[in-house]
Design brief:
By secondary structure, the chain is α/β, with parallel strands linked by helices. It has a single domain, classed as HUPs (Rossmann fold, 3-Layer(aba) Sandwich). Helix content is 30%, strand content 24%. The chain is built from eight helices and eleven strands. Helix 2 crosses helix 5. The longest helix has 17 residues. The model has no long low-confidence stretch (mean pLDDT 93).
Amino acid sequence: MNIIICVKHVPETAEAEIAIHSSGKKIKTEDLVFDINEWDNYALEEAVQLKEKHEGSVTAITVGSEAADSTLRKCLARGADKAIRLTDKAFEGSDSYVIARILHKVIQDLPFELILTGAQAGDDGYAQVGVVLAELLGIPHATMVKKVEPLKGFVKVNRELEGGLEEIMEVKLPALLATQTGINEPRYISIMGIRKAMKKEIQVLSLKDVGLTEEEVGESGSWITVEKMFIPPVEKKAEILTGGVDEITTKVVETLRGKGLI
């Protein structure tokens, strides 16, 4: 089974002090640590496990700067066979649709039965690249996947739905699956894996290589543009209600009524 895994090099912001860039359209990243997107990390592990069980190959691909090589090296160290980085200054400012178009231009010429992506990216949370890419390629897709079982010509997948529900479905190959965190347990990278990964070549493709024009990528080709980014202001602090049950209940009702909620 030939598998393509789309990954993204993102900043870790969970415990970082975030500041807005002077442009007002992005955050400052100079002091942030970058790593593979969390959801993509699980997708990568799933791809490698499928390769180990059913043979084939895994190709990791990303759209990003040279700094994204560290994420691709991690993919290679974890079991990916090839790595491709799509890099061009014209790609800056591209939204999910344009990123999917860039990936489509390259992936359409590659042999594959399955494409894996993370359910969403940790930096923007759009959850759009995978489904748009599937539509551009004209293949079926499933999102929020938490279990994958290959069958002859199909994959049986379990999807996580709202309210704790789960859906089991069969998807005809070739297909794209956007995986959820928790689908597996990502492995640690061995020293031997790191050494081998450092010796492997990362194929780099530019705007000219993918066959798109400057007008078709970046902000000019995007459907969505960021007008302004800001850190939400801190509102009123929480109020702790004290007293007996009846007294607290009365206060809650009065508060909700005062705010027009009941």
